[in-house]
Amino acid sequence: MAASRIVIENCSIATVDAGDTEYTSGHIVVADNKIESVGAGKAPENLENVVRRIDGTGHLATPGLVNTHHHFYQWITRGLATDHNLFNWLVALYPTWARIDEQMAYSAAQGSLAMMARGGVTTAMDHHYVFPKGSGDLSGAIIRAARETGVRFTLARGSMDRSEKDGGLPPDFAVETLEGALAATEATVDEHHDASFDAMTQIAVAPCSPFSVSTELMKQGAELARRKGVRLHTHGSETVEEEQFCKELFGMGPTEYFESTGWLGEDVWMAHCVHMNDSDIAAFARTKTGVAHCPSSNARLAAGIARVPDMLAAGVPVGLGVDGTASNESGELHTELRNALLINRLGAHREAALNARQALRLGTYGGAQVLGRASQIGSLEPGKLADIVLWKLDTLAHASIADPVTALVFGAAAPVTLSLVNGKPVVEDSRLLNVDEDAIARSTRAEAQRLAQITAQA
Length: 458
Fold this sequence. Notes:
The chain is of the alpha/beta class and 458 residues long. It has helices at residues 86-97, 102-117, 138-149, 178-192, 215-228, 240-250, 254-260, 278-287, 295-300, 308-314, 334-344, 356-370, 404-410, 437-457, and strands spanning 5-14, 22-31, 34-40, 50-55, 59-63, 65-66, 121-128, 152-159, 201-207, 231-236, 268-272, 290-293, 318-320, 388-392, 416-421, 424-428, 431-432. The protein has 14 helices and 17 strands. The longest helix is centred in the C-terminal third of the chain and has 21 residues, at 437-457.
């Protein structure tokens, strides 16, 4: 059967390929779910079975954005504990989070996914680690929301087995046993992980953090992931307090601890990595361990400024993350392009820290690297999957910025005229096509109120 083709023409194009190839006015041809050609000028003539032609005048085409760290459930606890550092914020919110159920997780995932998708995210990720007893099929609910939205998705199936009675932060009823966590994680991989080239759903093994997980869960989690051929994810080196915790409990810093438990490697990525010394960065570079940089959340929780320029210079794979919307209330990844650039310029490298194209690479190809999908997504190249965003840059907001990549990264948030995932439209004219934004807004508001009432009555 002949391939169905979509042709996009007359737009600026930032391919984010290895050579950062760009076209002032170019074309993209999509055949079924893959990119067939990208180049300057008009598309080739006499293409067969063209089902749609799009005039991209006034637009910039980029790869779809790739989110590498998030906690969807936090959508229904936004705006709380707004003046807390990480540990105090966790203490304040765990009693609420520990009471989520399946409907809350589903609704919160809908809100998180909708906000990201309408802002150019084509590959989303959720690190879900709160599984209260009797709360239902939370993983299934989250995956269902992603499928309905139409985005590519990685669920990092999290876990916690260190509660308050063990010196951890979560309430006792909100954590799993070691055996229970491992069994549930393996079952999630078996049921939902798709290893194919154009997979829409993948699973990673993701114990929450060194201070909420036993060493045995870290070690056996790594063994499980490698036996199943899936990736590993956790939080790392987010705060000074975490570093002190690791030294007091384990007699070593976070990176040394991760290495001792099998948690460095090209199949691993860590969230945050704010407090990394030279030897930590060298260890990540040597092992090709990835980093999810979450600048807005790190600023919101006063965690600090990650050494992203030094990581990139050393060869560490780095992508961008929204992080949970209880520490980044906007819930959008395209704002992280700008914030990554600006916040890193407050660090030691100042104006040389990052430029617009490096920021765009973090949010696209860098994210694909971190999720282990750089051969499939993250750049606009023939043979790759057709995850493409068309940003509108000819309005007042960007009218006097000549360079389109600069306009996208430095300027106001650009509207998304079209977002394709696997060659299928998910967003058109800044509206989601597969789900009802207004209904989701009503649902998430209702679930937030229900969770607040349950917490108040506990």
